[in-house]
């Protein structure tokens, strides 16, 4: 029997424990507040662990994030070099995230925010209509989520391209891929709607800045689905004021829940959603971790191992 713990500083872990029951002949999983011997625990399902989590569980070797991101785990001060951190890959989550992004793209393309304002003012006036092929969409980050987005946007007829750190190509050769720092400017200059789904690393911290916004096409719109640390708040507000951006949809924030005094709440050109673009299903999160633990217990490397130096 393999022993594990499911833990988050603020999420209800009950749905995840229920899913672990399906594997009761292989693993035994508890939450931190249940009676257990911490020295027996060798794996964990985590989301925002406390700073001393790995001190309390000295024999944990494999952990998986409940969500797609792993930055909260890698940033844990007590994490050890021998801990293998795994990403979560859920095809349904990718589909949910993609449709959320697409809705925001279409919301910008078809001027729905302006129509909502016209409705409130009882104004009957058609606004300019554009075909998907006339809207240049750029996906910043082509991991599991980003690749799903560019493929779906391409299928819908949008002029879509992607940017990634490496020069890895996509299966669909008709979708343009920009790579590395040398091609970032070219990617931004052809982009009107920018979708950020980057991981949070030292290199991407603060990437959504005044310098970046100034390089986008006129009528630019930001869809921020990555991590709160990507965005420089004051730069976004200035870009909206000076016209570098016509609007923004924000789903992730440095502080969550978003504080009541945040300027985002009342800004007329910002759409705020409560980190709800997508979520990993408990079934998928547990299935992913159990498979990784199986592999590790047989002396194999987990499939979705994160490279700590890269942060993803």
Keyphrases for this structure?
312 residues, alpha/beta, Rossmann fold, seven-stranded parallel beta sheet, five-stranded parallel beta sheet, 10 helices, 12 strands, elongated
Ordered list of secondary-structure elements with their pairings:
Elements lengths: L1 E7 L5 H7 L6 E4 L10 E7 L5 H4 L5 E4 L5 H4 L9 E3 L4 H19 L2 H10 L14 E5 L3 H12 L3 E6 L11 E4 H10 L3 E4 L13 H4 L7 E4 L8 H10 L4 E4 L19 E3 L9 H16 L15
Parallel strand pairs: 1-2, 1-3, 3-4, 4-5, 6-7, 6-9, 7-8, 9-10, 10-11, 11-12
CATH topology (fold) name of the largest domain: Rossmann fold
Strand sequence of the main sheet, in spatial order? Answer: 8-7-6-9-10-11-12
Identify the CATH architecture of the largest domain. 3-Layer(aba) Sandwich
For the largest beta-sheet, the strand count, sense and barrel status come to: 7 strands, parallel
Mean pLDDT: 96
Which radius of gyration do the C-alpha atoms yield?
Answer: 21 Å
- What's the SSE pattern? EHEEHEHEHHEHEEHEHEHEEH
Work out the count of structural domains: 2
User: What's the number of helices?
Assistant: 10
Can you tell me the residue ranges where pLDDT is under 50 for at least 5 consecutive residues?
Answer: none
Considering DSSP H and I runs of 4 or more, what fraction of the residues is helical?
Answer: 25-40%
CATH superfamily of the largest domain: NAD(P)-binding Rossmann-like Domain
């Amino acid at each position: 029997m393999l022993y594990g713990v499911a833990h988050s500083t603020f999420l209800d872990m009950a749905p995840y424990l229920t899913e672990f029951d399906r594997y009761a002949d292989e693993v035994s999983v508890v939450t931190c507040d249940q009676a257990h011997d911490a020295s027996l625990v060798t794996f964990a399902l985590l989301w925002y662990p406390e700073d001393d989590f790995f001190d309390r569980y000295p024999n944990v070797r494999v952990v998986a994030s409940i969500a797609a991101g792993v930055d909260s785990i890698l940033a844990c001060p007590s994490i050890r070099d021998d801990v293998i951190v795994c990403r979560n890959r859920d095809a349904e989550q990718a589909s949910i995230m993609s449709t959320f992004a697409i809705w925001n793209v279409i919301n910008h393309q078809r001027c729905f925010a302006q129509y909502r304002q016209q409705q409130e003012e009882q104004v009957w006036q058609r606004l300019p209509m554009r075909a998907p092929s006339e809207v240049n969409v750029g996906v910043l980050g082509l991991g599991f989520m980003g690749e799903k987005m560019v493929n779906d946007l391409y299928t819908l007829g949008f002029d879509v391209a992607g940017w990634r750190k490496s020069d890895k190509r996509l299966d669909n050769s008709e979708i343009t891929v920009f790579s590395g720092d040398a091609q970032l400017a070219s990617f931004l200059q052809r982009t009107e709607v920018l979708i950020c789904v980057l991981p949070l690393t030292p290199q991407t911290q603060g990437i959504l800045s005044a310098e970046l916004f100034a390089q986008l096409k006129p009528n630019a719109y930001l869809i921020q689905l990555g991590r709160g640390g990507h965005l420089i708040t004051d730069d976004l507000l200035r870009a909206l004021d000076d016209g570098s951006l016509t609007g923004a949809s924000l789903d992730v924030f440095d502080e969550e829940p978003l504080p009541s005094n945040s300027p985002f709440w009342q800004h007329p050109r910002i759409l705020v959603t409560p980190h709800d673009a997508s979520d990993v299903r408990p079934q998928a999160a547990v299935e992913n971790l159990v498979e990784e633990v199986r592999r590790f217990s047989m002396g194999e490397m987990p499939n979705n191992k994160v490279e700590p130096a890269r942060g993803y």
